Amino acid sequence: MEISLRAQNMPQSPIRKLAKYADAAKLAGVHVYHLNIGQPDIKTPPQALEAVKNFSQDILSYSPSQGLKSLRTKMVSYYADYGIDLSPDEIIITSGGSEAIMFAYMSCLNPGDEIIVTDPSYANYMAFAISCGAVVKSVKTDIKNGFKLPPVEEFEKQITPKTRAILICNPNNPTGYLYTKQEMRQIRDLVKKYNLYLISDEVYREFIYTKSPYISACHLEGIEENVILVDSVSKRYSECGIRIGALITKNKAVREAVMKFCQARLSPPLFGQVVAEASLSTPEEYMQEVYDEYLSRRNFLIDQLNQIPGVFAPAPTGAFYVMVELPVDDVDKFCKWCLTDFTYTFEGEGKSEREIATVMMAPGTGFYTNPEEGRHQVRMAYVLCKQDLEKAMVVLRKALETYNAL
Length: 406
Hints:
Strand content: 15-25%
Radius of gyration: 21 Å
Distance between the termini: 43 Å
Number of strands: 13
CATH class of the largest domain: Alpha Beta
Strand order of the largest sheet: 2-8-7-6-5-3-4
Helix content: 25-40%
Number of helices: 13
CATH superfamily of the largest domain: Type I PLP-dependent aspartate aminotransferase-like (Major domain)
Largest sheet: 7 strands, mixed
CATH architecture of the largest domain: 3-Layer(aba) Sandwich
Mean pLDDT: 96
Structural class: alpha/beta
Shape: globular
Order of helices and strands: HHEHHEHEHEHEHEEEHHHEHEEEEH
């Protein structure tokens, strides 16, 4: 018996593939500082939790395949605040942003069709393409200039008769880069010139750390029918576990195609939608506090990283990730070694206050279409409080010193 070629070609997640080593370290009493995954330690808005406690239906029934109408209607007002004009029918609720990406692929790409992404990019963009039989082509960005988009000619080099779509993440995961108005117009012109789909993952729009404006793909004139917006409440409200996202498009044919897949998977999570709907009433004070906290963490982490000899980390302008260049021969080997062969002990006043610790990072190889290009980079998520980030940086500095002395 053999597994499918699709399964054989499916890459492991760089974010989770080392989890078994982290679990073993924890069983041995080691505190693992998780910089590998975008799981915030920010508390979920209280009104979201109250919505679950106050849930009064007697039957936990299916919801509509498109998602609860009340949630979609409330989302219309949310997007209006960002200058995005929608109707409830143009919003489809999905099981996380990941399902929205998968359904967009399955609805718009045939086996063998090509989709262009920026390199590095979120690992699941490539994994989902393999699931659908699509081919990922990449346009390279460079850590040295903070991962700015290259000239339009670099995109056009990748366009072939099989090219069907461009996918962007704005602000970007894993780089934290925010696309400028000029860059978004560049993408718009390409989409229009070659009549491509533009799939735009905009999960991190709340977290922009410059005075540059947020330019949604939905703001781009002349390609309204080409745009598919992907969204999620996971990071915005620290609700990764409820698995609620959205696929948004004004293209009726795409919506009808997506709905076939939605009906096949029956319905999005009921409780998740209840939580998401309540979260849309989150006070501005909460959002401002969360924003200020991430900005403070970003500033602290970038400063600490760039003080470590041989380390380079460009300041991200959005989201809560940073790609970091490390002075090691192979980040996959180094990240595994940190979990299996290295610990650092923080000494307290008493024996019970000693902390044996290590750090977990996501190897950069998994974010590139050609893994050799990420051989010296890791992605870090600054989703831990500054006290924990400070300890994680102590551990990283000592780990690098020890590893490079081997």
